[in-house]
Structure formats: structure tokens, C-alpha cells
Amino acid sequence: MAEERVATRTQFPVSTESQKPRQKKAPEFPILEKQNWLIHLHYIRKDYEACKAVIKEQLQETQGLCEYAIYVQDFFWENIKLPLKYIMKQLNSTRKIGRSAIT
């Protein structure tokens, strides 16, 4: 008669990592640019008053660190393609970061 083969299965120990409870949600970090879409929406619809209100609110929340809000706000003030104020603020913020890293 033919030999019967007994199927043996190797059982591996269950890893403890799979048994640990996982966080389902990543930790939330403050998003400085969270209302850019709304600023853009008001701007392209030419609803400038609402756009200015959202910009003001966003800049207050972020303490002036929202790049897009500054950029669009400078379009209202200067009405030029590359606002000098935007460029200067970016240079100043870069310098502040560099100084704080050194000290």
C-alpha cells in the first residue's frame, strides 16, 4: 500500500505586537494652512469682503504664519503679481528660524 503522508503544520508563536491595541487615529497637529481653500474660493468668486475676513481670522489664529493668507492679502494691498511684502515676510521668517536654531 501507498504510504500515507501525515501533514504536519508548523505553528509559529503569535507575536505580541499584533495583540497590542492600536491607535486608530494619528495624533493631530495644528495645521497652519487649513483655510487656504476657503480663501482661494472667495478670491476666485470675487467675494473680496468674505476673503478678507477669512484672511484676517487665519492670520490671527496662526499669529501671522500662514503664507497663502499673507500672499493673497498682499494682492489686495499692492495689486502686483509678486508682492514685495510677501517676499520680505518670508525672508524675515526664514532669518528668525535661522537665528533661533543658532542660539
Describe this structure in words.
There is one protein chain. By secondary structure, the chain is mostly helical. The protein has a domain at 27-97. The chain has helices at residues 36-44, 48-62, 67-78, 84-102. The longest helix is centred in the C-terminal third of the chain and has 19 residues, at 84-102. The termini are far apart. The model has no long low-confidence stretch (mean pLDDT 75). This is BBS4 isoform 5. Residues 8-18 have a biased composition (Polar residues). Keywords: Repeat, TPR repeat. Residues 1-25 are annotated as: Disordered.
Notable features of this structure?
103 residues, mainly alpha, 4 helices, elongated
Total of helices: 4
Give the termini distance in whole angstroms. 86 Å
Helix-residue proportion: 40-55%
**Mean of pLDDT:** 75
**Spatial extent as radius of gyration:** 28 Å
Instruction: Assign the structural class, choosing from mainly alpha, mainly beta, alpha/beta, alpha+beta, or little secondary structure.
Output: mainly alpha
User: Which geometry do the CA atoms define?
Assistant: elongated
Approximately how much beta-strand content do the residues carry? under 5%
Q: List the secondary-structure elements in sequence, H or E.
A: HHHH
Low-confidence stretches: none
Taking the sheet with the most strands, its summary is: none
Please give the number of β-strands: 0
